[in-house]
Structure formats: structure tokens, C-alpha cells
Amino acid sequence: MSITADISTSAADATPTAAASGANATARFHTDKSPYAAARDTPQERVSLLAREVIEAVHDTIRRHQVTYDEYNALKAWMIQVGEDGEWPLFLDVWIEHVVEQVANASRVGSKGSIEGPYYAPGAPELGADGAVPMRDEEPGTQLVWQGTITSVDGQPLDGATLELWQADDNGYYSQFAPGIPQWNLRGTFTVGADGAFRIRTIRPAPYQIPTDGACGKLIAAAGWHAWRPAHLHVKVSAPGHLPLTAQLYFPGDPHNDDDIAAAVKPELMLEPVPQPDGTVQVDYGFVLDPA
Ligand code: DHB
Ligand code: FE
Fold it and tell me: In this structure, which ligand is nearest to the CA of 25?
């Protein structure tokens, strides 16, 4: 099943909605079999321990704050709505994933990782070691030229390492998850040679607001929070014999670097953009992978 054929690549209905973005994120998750294998293979003792502790943490909150039946029913209605809007991937990736990432990557000595979020799609076009990601004619936004190398922790370049890039456009929308954007827009796979070097041409992404018209947006509004993630580039970096790295890179000065709704910013992931006389922006940022 194509997750994009009907909704994302059609310009006919060009209004992005939380339900459509959520439905696409949910459909994308269904295409990946590994989570379902993980659900089947998690040992009973582990399921029992984790499920009991999470449920007891909820009980503790109810007792501590004297939660009422109205509040309980509001929660029930909201959780049903999250499912109906297809927003469970979004909810989990915004409010939970960053702690899982911290725990999973605590012992890495190479580059820092960050959350994957709901908008990765495997199979982005192969662009060699030096190329431009697919863009529309007159793609809006500041042009960005990004250079770097992929090495192992001992400094050796990793011949054949790949970097997958995905990002929001200048309006904060992701191809395949918002309508009317070509399938692989601002997505690409780069493969480095013996020198480990890559050079990527793209545009600077805009800050991104998680969909505000669905159940997650309702929670944010009801709690008086904001929905913003700072502008970011997503990457997955892989090389034979090394742990794959999922990360995000950020731009200094973004108003939401310090209060990212997804809590996924780290100082090590900050770019240092250098504006060029021709109006483009250049960044240097490379990756160091841990041996597997
Ligand atoms: C979400 C979106 C992102 O672009 C991201 O990086 C993390 C989370 C979200 O909407 O859940
Ligand atoms: Fe993102």
C-alpha cells in the first residue's frame, strides 16, 4: 500500500490537516514491520513490569491530585480522539521518545543522537556524495549548503557510509505527510566515498508547529502550552560495522531552541551557519559513528 498516493501528492485538497498528517504517520508506521515484531517478542516479565509501573504512576497521580470523574471522562474522550485522528505516533514522538533516545544512546562516544519523530520515510532518492535534494521549481526558502564527513570514533573516514536527510519546507511541512508536495521533496540519501565527505544542497527548514487541529492540538490548547519545534534537519547515518545514528540538527537563535515541545534539542546538535555573499548559507557538520 502506498501511504502517499491519495493524500500527500495530490494538490486537489491542499489544506494540511492534523487528521491527514496523523493518518499518514500512522500508515507509515504500519509499513514498518519491526515494531510489531518487537511487540510480539517482548518477554512477558518485561511487559508485566513496565505496564504495571505505568498504570501505578497514573494511579498515584489520581490520588495525589484528587482527580474527578469529569477529569477521568475528559481523559477518556481525549484518548479516543487521539486514536481517531491517527495521532498516537505524533503524541508518542513529541512527549515520550526523547527519553527513550537518551536511555538508548547513553553510552555512545561518537555523535549525539536525537528523536526520529513521525515523518521519516525510507527509500529517499540516491544522490551520491555531492548533490541537491529534490526541490520544486522556485522552492521557497534560503539555500543551504552543508558539508561534512562521516568517520568512525578513531577518525577513519567510513567509505560507503550513508546519510539520509529529511526536513520540513519553508512553510514547516513534510513531503508525504502534508498534501500537495511532491513525494520526495527535501528528502535524499547521500553515500560517501573513501574520504568520508559529503556536500548537500537544500534549503533552510522553517520552525515546525505540530498539527494544532487534532487531539494533540486540543491538549496543547487546553493546557496553555505552545506547539512549536525549532527549525531542524533530520538525519539517519549508517555505515557497515557501526551503530546507526538518528539525529536532528538545529539553528542558533531559533525562539524555540530552549522550549522545544519535543524536548529534542541538545547543544551538540547546534549548527553554525555562515551567511555567504551570494545569499546562501553554509554549514559544516559531520558525524562520528560508534562501532557496533
Ligand atoms: C513531530 C514532528 C517532527 O517534525 C519531529 O521532528 C518530531 C515530532 C511531531 O509532530 O510529532
Ligand atoms: Fe521534524
Answer: 1
In the block, which residue shows the cell 560495522? 241
Closest C-alpha to ligand 1, atom 11: 90
Strand partners, 245: 237
Rounded to an integer, what distance in angstroms lies between the CA atom of residue 166 and that of residue 195? 23
* Domains present along the chain, CATH in parentheses: 14-292 (2.60.130.10)
Closest Cα to atom 8 of ligand 1 = 117
Q: How confident is the model at residue 13 (pLDDT cuts 50, 70, 90)?
A: low
- pLDDT tens-place string over residues 168-206: 999 999 999 999 999 999 999 999 999 999 999 999 999
Measure the CA–CA gap between 246 and 116, rounded to whole angstroms: 6
**Residue 262, number of CB atoms within 10 A of its CB:** 23
Query: Within 200-271, where are the H helices?
Result: 215-223
Q: How high does pLDDT run on average in the chain? A: 93
Could you identify the residue written with the cell 519535543?
A: 262
Q: φ, ψ for residue 282 (rounded to 5)?
A: -115, 140
pLDDT of res. 6? 39
Q: How far does the centroid of ligand 2 lie from the alpha carbon of residue 285, in Å?
A: 18
Q: Which amino acid is at 280?
A: T
